[in-house]
Every structure is written in C-alpha cells, then in structure tokens.
C-alpha cells in the first residue's frame, strides 16, 4: 500500500460539512483527506445560501429604509440590478474555489480533486479530472458528506425544457421577464422574493395549501400576504402536469392540474432535494445507491459492519441546513476521534459530546423572505404529534416598542411553545422584518432547556425587539 494514500479519515465531499469535519479531525491530530468533484465550498457557497442571500438583502434593506420616517423621502431610486448581480457574483467568489482550497490546505488535510466512490470497506477510489485513478484508504473512518441536489418531478416535457433549479435560480445573469416558481418551501419562497425584487413577473405554483408549510401556519400567511403585495401571484393547491418549450430559450407553457395553463420565460423547480448517493459506490459496502443515508446520533451508518462509515450533512436527511450539517460535522469528528483513541464509553447520551441531539429538538432556521421567518424547536403541531403537553403563547410583534422604532407600521408575529409538564420552552417562531437576529436567544432557551422561572430573570433591553420575550412570558404567566 502507498503510505501517502493512507489517512486516518477520508471525507467524501468538500461542502460546508465535509470541510468542517476535516478541520475538526485535523485539529484533533488525525490525518485526513477530502475529495471534491466540483467546487470546494459545496452547494451552499455557490448555488444556495450565499448567492441567494446576496440577491435578497438589497431589496430588504430598501424596504426597511422606506419604512423609516425621514429616511423614506431620501430613498428615491430603485434597485441597481446589475450591482446586485455583481455583488452576488462576488459572494459566490466568481464560482472559483481557490480560496476554499487554500483554507483546506491550511488545515493540513490533503485536498483531492475528483469524483470519489467507495470501493469496499474503508477504501475510496478517486477519478481525477486528468483521468487518473487514485485509491485512498482510511485507518478509522470514511465520512460521506456528498450533500443533496434538486429533485425534479418526472413530468412530460421537463427534460427538453431546461428548467431552472436552485443552480440557475441563484446564478442567472439575466432577469427573466416572466418566472414561474414551482414549490412553496424555503427555496421557492426565497427565490420568488429575490427575482420579483429584481424585476421579474413571478407566479408561484404551490401544491400545498400554504407557503412554508413546515413552520407555524401564521408564517406562511404573512409571507404570502407580503409576496402578493409586492406583485407576486401566489397560487395554492395547484400542480404542474406538463412542461412544453418548443424552442430552446423560447417561452414555455406549463399545463396545470386545475385545467389552466401558464406561459412563462423560465420555470424554477423548487420541489425539494434528493441525496447525492447514486454514484458513490454504496453497492460495494452492501448499501442501496440513491437513498438518504440513515445514521445514529453519532452520525455513524449503523447498517455497515465495522462501524467505519459516517454520513454527515444533507446526505443523512436529518436537517437540510448548513449550520446544522456543520454542527453534525463537529459531533461526528469528536466521535471519530474518540473511537480512534479507543475511548471506552462515548458520551452519546442526550446532549452528550458525541450525540447530535439538537437535530431532534433544537434546529434553528431562518428563511430570508421579506418578512423574514425564523423558528427553532417544535411547532404547535409537532408538539401535539410528539404527545407533549404543550401550550402555544402568541404575541403581536408589531406592538413591541423596539419594533415600532425599527419600522413605521411594523408587522410581525411571535409564538412560544411551552412544555407545561417540564416548564421549559420547546419551540419559538417569529415572522417579521429583522427577526433573524432574534432567533439565537430562542435557540439557547430551547437547547439549554432554561426553566420558564429563570427566563423571567433574563431581562430584554428597552427598546429592542427582544422585548417580545417579556411579552410572551407575561402572556404565559397571566
Ligand atoms: C437555494 C438554497 C438556499 C439555501 N439557503 C440556506 C441558508 O440560507 N441557510 C442554510 O443553513 N441552509 C441553506 N440551504 C441548505 C444548504 O445549502 C445545505 O444544507 C448545505 O449546502 C449542505 O451542505 P453539505 O456539505 O451537506 O452538502 P453540499 O453543500 O451539497 O456539498 C456536498 C459536496 O460534495 C461534493 N460531492 C458530491 N458527490 C461527490 C463525489 N462522489 N465525490 C466528490 N465530491 C462529491 C459536491 O460537489 C459538493 O461540493 C439552502 C439550499 C438551497 C438549495
Ligand atoms: N434559508 C434557509 O434556511 C433555506 C433556504 C433554502 C433552502 N433551505 C433548505 O433546503 C431544503 C430544500 O428546500 P426546498 O424548498 O427545495 O424543499 P422543501 O421540501 O422544503 O419544499 C418543497 C416544496 O415543493 C413542493 N413539491 C414537491 N414536489 C412537488 C411536485 N412534484 N409538484 C409540485 N410541488 C411539489 C412541496 O409541496 C413543497 O412546497 C430545505 O430542507 C430547506 O430547509 C434552507
């Protein structure tokens, strides 16, 4: 065996999750290699989190300025679309990953460019862009961090129509005249908001009966209202049954299940994700290609004997979010290191150092719609499904002094879910401009299971929007 190609840990995929896992493994003194077939930094850096946020922030800033008396009159122009797109390009590092590769190099891990596949236990074969095959062997662990890709529905005509997915939806250089967005989840809502603000005439086609249906229902209602006010047509309870684009780059016609048709210049399918596991050699370790990789709380794939295979980030379907995948990477790296060092007992009990407990109970998410939506922990419906003796406490965020200072006519709502038996907060949801930065206090309350009686002593500063906490607690206590 070539000693150069033996590593303690091999990571497949250098998205945000793979990069973090490799960094933590190196920090603990393990040798590591990370294999990447496209761009180091993954979907998040180039076609997801970062470019979408760069597209969304300018219109949010403009709206907020227009809601401050005295400032509104000073804002007379409209968005500079080419400047917004240029800023987006720079947030996506012009789709050049050399900065990220330099960072990986600085950790002391080996970066291997190419498509990686498992080749039996603890072995990964990489096909490099130069056509060279390289075999890497892991002493302790292989971590699959290959992420997810857009899932397209199997519709007649879709193959030849070149629909947008999140990739074109975040990297397009031209603003389409008429854009149809299929799907009402975070991708659909964020990208509809962004392209509407840049000048597209947007129609959302959503098969559910509301937007952002995994959050509290009032979130979708507020976001729907704001999208409609901005000029987006939101159609609920409708699905696309056929896509026709007779000429490449020409207009397209979508056939709908309500008998209608929609003519548009581009269609963006934001209809969920599929795991990137179809071509990573899972069959060589007796796993089924193409599926999500199920793990235990140490992020280890239990079905594989020898305990050397981990699946971290989107690919395990626990929580498809960058921050949550990076949290898993920290936990997985700690577990790999502990096992490599022969630690007899892992701290894999609830909230232990080697268990990704937050994936079950305290996943924070911010959807950067206008208004923003932010949540952590359980919704009222999820609490009920889990059999929690829960009470939902609601408050109008707009009536808090800090919100009134933030914007004239501020609209927003908040809900806190209290576990009545344990007297702790198990879920919080906010919707309104600027609520993203309110969320971490909620994450701490939920993850730390702070007793309600102690939260009463956590005094929010006046006049900030955080006074919503006081109002929620006052409402709860009566
Ligand atoms: C439009 C959009 C906006 C989003 N916005 C946010 C947001 O604001 N905040 C947030 O937290 N989350 C957001 N997400 C989700 C976030 O992008 C993902 O959760 C995150 O990218 C997952 O990271 P990952 O490392 O698991 O996978 P990925 O980012 O998908 O990275 C996986 C990497 O593995 C590589 N790879 C795959 N197969 C192989 C192979 N066989 N060999 C070598 N390399 C391979 C890929 O090329 C890729 O670089 C958004 C998603 C979308 C689509
Ligand atoms: N700011 C953020 O945190 C952020 C932003 C974007 C995406 N993400 C993450 O990325 C993941 C993917 O997001 P998403 O919005 O693509 O997926 P999603 O699963 O959240 O929503 C998909 C939507 O498409 C609809 N849909 C699915 N199949 C359909 C079909 N055949 N026809 C019509 N409609 C269909 C669903 O009903 C739903 O409305 C999510 O888990 C999300 O958390 C996060």
TrEMBL record:
Q: Which domain of life, per UniProt? A: Bacteria
Q: Which residues form the FAD/NAD(P)-binding domain?
A: 7-329
**Cofactor(s) the protein needs:** FAD
Q: Which residues form the Pyridine nucleotide-disulphide oxidoreductase dimerisation domain?
A: 363-469
Which InterPro entries does the entry mention?
Class-I_Pyr_Nuc-Dis_Oxidored (IPR050151), FAD/NAD-binding_dom (IPR023753), Pyr_nuc-diS_OxRdtase (IPR001100), Pyr_nucl-diS_OxRdtase_dimer (IPR004099)
Give the matching Pfam families.
Pyr_redox_2, Pyr_redox_dim
Offer an example of a GO molecular function term for this protein: dihydrolipoyl dehydrogenase (NADH) activity
| An example Gene Ontology biological process | 2-oxoglutarate metabolic process
What family, per the record? Answer: Belongs to the class-I pyridine nucleotide-disulfide oxidoreductase family.
Name of the protein in its database record: NAD(P)/FAD-dependent oxidoreductase
> Could you tell me which species this protein originates from?
Streptomyces tardus
């Amino acid at each position: 065996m070539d000693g150069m190609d033996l590593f303690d840990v091999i990571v497949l995929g250098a998205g945000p999750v793979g990069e973090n896992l490799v960094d933590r493994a190196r920090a603990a003194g393990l040798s590591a290699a990370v294999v990447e077939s496209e761009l180091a930094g993954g979907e998040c850096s180039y076609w997801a989190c970062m470019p979408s946020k760069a597209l969304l922030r300018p219109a949010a800033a403009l709206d907020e300025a227009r809601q401050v008396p005295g400032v509104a009159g000073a804002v007379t122009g409209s968005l500079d679309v080419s400047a917004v797109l240029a800023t987006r390009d720079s947030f996506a590092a012009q789709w050049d990953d050399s900065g990220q590769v330099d960072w990986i190099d600085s950790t002391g891990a080996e970066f291997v460019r190419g498509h990686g596949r498992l080749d039996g236990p603890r072995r990964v074969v990489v096909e490099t862009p130069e056509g060279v095959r390289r075999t890497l062997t892991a002493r302790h662990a292989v971590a699959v961090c290959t992420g997810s890709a857009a899932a397209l529905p199997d519709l007649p005509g879709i193959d030849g129509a070149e629909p947008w997915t999140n990739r074109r939806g975040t990297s397009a250089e031209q603003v389409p005249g008429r854009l149809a967005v299929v799907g009402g989840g975070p991708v659909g809502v964020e990208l509809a908001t962004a392209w509407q603000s840049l000048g597209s005439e947007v129609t959302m086609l959503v098969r559910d009966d509301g937007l952002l249906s995994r959050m509290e229902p009032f979130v979708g209602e507020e976001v729907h209202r704001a999208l409609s006010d901005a000029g987006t047509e939101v159609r609920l309870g409708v699905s696309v049954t056929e896509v026709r684009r007779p000429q490449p780059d020409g207009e397209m016609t979508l056939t709908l299940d309500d008998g209608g048709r929609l003519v548009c210049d581009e269609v963006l399918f934001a209809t969920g994700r599929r795991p990137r596991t179809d071509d990573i050699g899972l069959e060589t370790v007796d796993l089924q290609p193409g599926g999500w990789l199920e793990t235990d709380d140490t992020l280890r794939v239990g079905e594989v004997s020898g305990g050397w295979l981990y699946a971290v980030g989107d690919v395990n379907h626990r929580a498809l979010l960058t921050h949550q995948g990076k949290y898993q990477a920290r936990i997985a790296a700690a577990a790999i290191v502990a096992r490599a060092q022969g630690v007899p007992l892992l701290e894999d009990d609830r909230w232990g150092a080697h268990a990704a407990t937050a994936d079950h109970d305290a996943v924070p998410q911010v959807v950067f719609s206008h208004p923003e939506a932010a949540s952590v922990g359980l919704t009222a419906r999820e609490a009920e499904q889990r059999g929690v003796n829960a009470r939902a406490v609601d408050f109008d965020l707009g009536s808090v002094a800090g919100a009134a200072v933030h914007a004239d006519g501020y609209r927003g709502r908040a809900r806190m879910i209290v576990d009545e038996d344990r007297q702790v907060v198990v879920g919080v949801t906010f919707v309104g401009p600027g609520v993203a930065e309110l969320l971490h206090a909620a994450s701490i309350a939920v993850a730390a299971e702070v007793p309600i009686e102690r939260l009463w002593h956590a005094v929010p500063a006046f006049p900030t929007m955080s006074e919503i906490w006081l109002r929620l607690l006052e409402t709860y206590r009566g």
